Amino acid sequence: MQVGPNNVLLGHFRPFYTMFLSISKKIMKMKGHCKIWFFESVGGAVVIGSLSSFIFAVLCAYVYVFPKVQPIIRDYGVPESSDPIGRCNVFDGKWMPDQSYPLYNASECPFAERGFDCLANGRRDKGYLKWRWKPRNCEIPRLNMTEILEELRGKRIVFVGDSLSRTQWESMICILMIGVEDKKSVYEVNGNKITKQIRFLGVRFSSFDLSIDFYRSVFLVQPGPAPRRAPKRVKTALKLDKLDDISKEWIDADALIFNSGHWWTPSKLFEMGWYFQVGGSLKLGMPISSAFRTALETWAAWAEATINPNRTSIFFRTFESSHWSGRNRNSCKVTRQPWSKTRGRDHSRFSDVVIKVVKNMAIPVTVLHVTPMGAFRSDAHVGTWSDNPSVPDCSHWCLPGVPDTWNEILLSYLLSENELYL
Ligand SMILES: *[C@@H]1O[C@H](CO)[C@@H](O)[C@H](O)[C@H]1NC(C)=O
Ligand SMILES: *[C@@H]1O[C@H](CO)[C@@H](O)[C@H](O)[C@H]1NC(C)=O
Ligand SMILES: *[C@@H]1O[C@H](CO)[C@@H](O)[C@H](O)[C@H]1NC(C)=O
After folding, report:
1. Ligand 3 pocket residue status of 390, Cβ below 6 Å
2. By CB atoms within 10 Å of each CB, which of 113, 262, 268, 344 scores lowest?
3. Full-model pTM
4. What are the residue boundaries of the Trichome birefringence-like C-terminal domain, all occurrences included (predicted)?
5. Residue with the nearest Cα to atom 7 of ligand 1?
């Protein structure tokens, strides 16, 4: 989903003719969908059940008859959100069984941490590995890692956020390593092992001059000591109006992928003595949802002031669905099959805030709206197949798994933008 005033499709600095070519190509793709759609309609297999499908039919007819007429698509916004990947909302779709998955073997990827390698930790059923995300109106292209590594030569990709961000970082490295012959040419720059608390991990693909970095910043904003005369229970003040001080290291990336959400809970904040602070004064009664919004606005202002959108593609991943159940939301039953319905988990207040804040930004930011796709995947969490089986986990995902899909989508975006550089 692309939100923000500058549409990425229009490119911030893509020459006009490239833009035109690309739009034409996308229309051709839409024409393809329309053809199938029409065939089904005419055959009576599809019942026009709503006004919107009727409008879509009319639009299809129009595009099919006048394939060179562009504005109609933009004006009517069909498909719903404009998107470099086949002009469709890639986050609206379903999971399809696919035997060609998973993309890699986590036990053979030195950067998949043991805690996420469910098979190595004793998970027996393997069905959860064999799913592909199918957007409603397009396909996520199957990526050739050899070619992708060439495209990414000389680049720096930076993931920032919590452990869900670390999972995506690990997944990205494992996916890219498929295309690397000499696995020893990929290494962590400080020789560090992956641990939960580490603030920086940098993996270098030396044959491709490519860096894939991770910065741990679970709230994105800066924690500090409690102010003097603060109540005893306050141990740390989270400064909602100051971005994390390691943010200066994110600036010169080619792609920046952020997340935040899982730490914004009473048990990770107030019960640990963390309280909010704005402009030097503690906000003891501030609800978590307003605090999250304030932090995100701080992040947005920082990005607008410091990031050069001509150099850096910015992404924000929405809340990664979790599947806790029971009255206290502390029971975790990993299923064998994905849920067939999202059961309300395709919505999250955190995701809503991310989407709203990004929409008002002056620079383009792509929202990776992974909440709905994750909502189905009650089968894909680490559960008790983690490094600590006594504490079941319905927040983190097995690798390989759902985070690989986030990366397939992310890579598709990066590559469609890389057309710019050709
Ligand atoms: C993954 O690799 C390990 C180590 O080489 C091997 O023992 C295991 O069978 C592989 N798993 C799968 C699912 O191929
Ligand atoms: C990937 O691309 C390379 C270079 O273009 C090609 O040689 C190789 O056969 C491709 N691999 C697959 C699996 O398509
Ligand atoms: C980005 O590129 C555009 C078009 O070349 C230019 O007008 C703009 O000043 C650039 N922005 C920055 C921050 O460099």
Report:
1. no
2. 344
3. 0.81
4. 140-412
5. 107
